[in-house]
Amino acid sequence: MKILLLGEYSNLHWTLAQGLRALGHSVVVASNGDRFKNYKRDIDLSRKSDNIIDTLKYAYLLSKNFRQFKGFDIVQIINPLFLDLKPYKNLSAFNYLKKHNGKVFMGAFGNDAYWLQACLNKNTFRYSEFDIPNQSDYLCSAKDIIKVWTDEDKVNVNKEIAERADGIIACLYEYFVSYKSQFEKKLTYIPAPINTSEIAFTQRGKDPSKVRFFIGIQKQRNEIKGTDILYKCLQEVQLKYPNECIIHKAESVPYDEYITMRDQSDVLLDQLYSYTPGMNALTAMAQGLLVVGGGEPETYDLLNKKNNHPIINILPSEEDIFNKLENLILNREQIPLQSINSRLFVEQHHDYLKIAQQYLDTWS
């Protein structure tokens, strides 16, 4: 098949393309590289700024490339707002893709109106970045997301694209359940793809005297991901166990540099409010790191996973976080086995060739 993957979050489309190509299909990935992360793509669709000159350059870039976006058997957009344009411009681009190609699928791979609605209704999730126990007001960054995804134009465009897409594919439990009640017949859950052939496994915990923790901080998303609280708890653990706890921290660095820094550690502190491991956690697990983050029972149920639950699941509670981190220090002799189980989990459920075949089956 001839496939166009349009947009990028967390390297998902590029990794999927690798799997599809290995299975013999022709794939084009067009994206902005997920901005500063600068993930690989075949066609660059980056918009430098909103000023008039860069806007005109971006319009020309899209016009030139969209003339090539015809005749694909499958087009998949990363999000209802898959271009750096106003909502109804995205809808116009979607209409063009529908007219000139075969099937067009929408990805539920990140923030959108349906996910936000599920977070705000207080019934779908036990907690989220919009519903934190013992906190009455929203986080400042949560307020920004609410402002974005309650905008009437964005909500309407999200709704229309979801209704008219040939299918909706979700990569996380949170996104899947957000669409399930209204779009169950056209919704599919497919786990995120990880190219395990490119990720070398290194068994962690070989130095039994120390545990090396790694945390990546994106300054603009620090609060919404909960890394501010995770880092605070980690520092408290280090104060209590100064000789056993080593902290490696990366702040808003390009992806390749981030991966290199992460590989020097035993444990990754990922996200606080998630139910599911994302691409960052999964690539770390493939490297052999233990992940402290989202691993709720709902995630394993969706995978029909009865055993090997390697993610160290945390609740949005400083006490729970501290206890889980301390437990890693006190039971560090278990890290080598947990490291192996992390890699096995990714190989079983997220291998990029298996996932690529699941996409092909769904698209067909």
Keywords for this entry:
alpha/beta, five-stranded parallel beta sheet, Rossmann fold, 2 domains
3D architecture notes:
The structure is a single chain. This protein has two domains: 2-189, Rossmann fold, CATH 3.40.50; 196-349, 3-Layer(aba) Sandwich (Rossmann fold). It is built from 15 helices and twelve strands. It has helices at residues 12-22, 52-66, 87-100, 113-120, 140-149, 152-164, 173-183, 222-225, 227-240, 255-262, 279-287, 297-302, 318-330, 335-349, 352-363, and strands at 2-6, 26-31, 43-44, 74-77, 103-108, 167-170, 187-189, 211-217, 245-251, 267-269, 290-293, 312-313. Strand 4, helix 3 and strand 5 form a beta-alpha-beta unit. Helix 1 (12-22) crosses helix 15 and helix 4 (113-120) packs across helix 7.
